[in-house]
Specification:
This protein is α/β, with parallel strands linked by helices. The chain is about 45% helix and about 15% strand. It is built from ten helices and nine strands. Strands 1-2-3-4-6-9 form a six-stranded mixed β-sheet, with helices on both faces. Strand 3, helix 2 and strand 4 form a beta-alpha-beta unit. The chain is globular, with a radius of gyration of 19 Å. Bound molecules: ligand T3D. Ligand T3D binds next to helix 2 and strand 5.
Length: about 260
């Protein structure tokens, strides 16, 4: 197991900590590969019901490690080999991913956060689409995700001007779910992750899948998606438990099945 990603799983919550604090968790091939492997494993592991992605030290992630030898060789091959499978694994994961962002999230680090399902940021955090500062285009799915999150005009401003986006602004623009006081961030994310780990996992997976599918579907196709998902969910133990608990006026106990 790679120490560049510290892994902890407790109570259904898998916490992945990017762990190169001296380099603001800049993404080496090893770190990227480890993240991809952890997300792939999480998909198969019934003990995992939610994933939290965070960074060690004073930052979330400073993007691609610019000192790595792969950089400058064939960046397209590097994107293909590491970034693409990582983002696809995150988007396909049938479990929610929560980003806990503090300090700076720059370049691929920012877009890694935006590829998560819920982003919580410390009030002092900043997101920087810093790619053009070094002559690159936003990657890690940023050109797909940003306009969907903040709209075309703001996505263009972020990509062309590389202006740091404060957590408050990111929240006001709808790019992230919540801003927490710096000292409260970890506890807030832990509370939310715990709640998600006790939620009906398959229903959350269906919501994630359906909302993403809706970006490209017609209303008719999307209604079909919803119908198919609802058919499957109607046969889950968690649906029966949810209805039974409602009738019995007690909190439901969802097992993710
Ligand atoms: O290969 C491909 O597939 C291409 C894909 C590219 C995807 C991308 O992510 S491109 C964008 C890459 N990231 C950046 O351009 C950001 C570079 N970093 C910065 O601009 C600044 O470090 C920050 C604004 C993020 C933070 O500034 P500050 O002043 O808080 O910290 P610092 O002093 O600059 O950094 C602290 C250390 O981390 C420092 O190391 P040192 O001098 O103490 O030994 C610095 O060099 C290192 N560091 C920060 N970012 C990176 C990095 N080392 C390697 N790669 C980095 N991206």
């Amino acid at each position: 197991m790679s120490a560049t990603v510290v892994t902890a799983c407790e109570g259904g919550v898998l916490t992945l900590t990017m762990n190169r604090p001296e380099k603001l968790n800049a993404l080496t091939s090893e770190l990227l590969g480890a993240l991809r492997d952890r997300f792939a494993a999480a998909a198969e592991d019934p003990a995992v019901r939610v994933v939290v992605l965070r960074g060690a030290g004073r930052a979330f992630c400073a993007g691609q490690d610019l000192s790595e030898s792969a950089v400058g060789d064939d960046l397209g091959a590097h994107v293909e080999r590491y970034y693409k499978p990582l983002v696809l694994a995150m988007r396909a994961l049938p479990k929610p991913i929560v980003a806990e962002v503090h300090g700076v999230a720059a370049g691929a680090g920012a877009n890694l956060a935006f590829a998560c399902d819920l982003v919580f940021a410390a009030r002092s955090a900043t997101f920087i689409e810093s790619f053009a500062r070094i002559g690159l285009v936003a990657d890690t799915g940023g050109t797909w995700m940003l306009p969907r999150l903040v709209g075309h005009a703001r996505a263009m401003g972020l990509a062309l001007l590389c202006t740091p986006l404060t957590a408050e602004q990111a929240h006001a623009w709808g790019a992230i779910w919540e801003v927490a006081d710096d000292a409260a961030l970890a506890d807030r994310v832990a509370d939310v992750a715990r709640a998600l780990a006790h939620a009906p996992t398959q229903a959350l997976a269906a919501a994630k899948h359906a909302i993403e599918a809706g970006w490209t579907n017609s209303i008719q196709a999307q209604l079909d998606v919803e119908g198919a998902l609802q058919r499957a969910l109607g046969r889950t133990d968690d649906f029966h438990e949810g209805v039974a608990a409602f009738g019995e006026k007690r909190p439901p106990v969802f097992r993710g099945r």
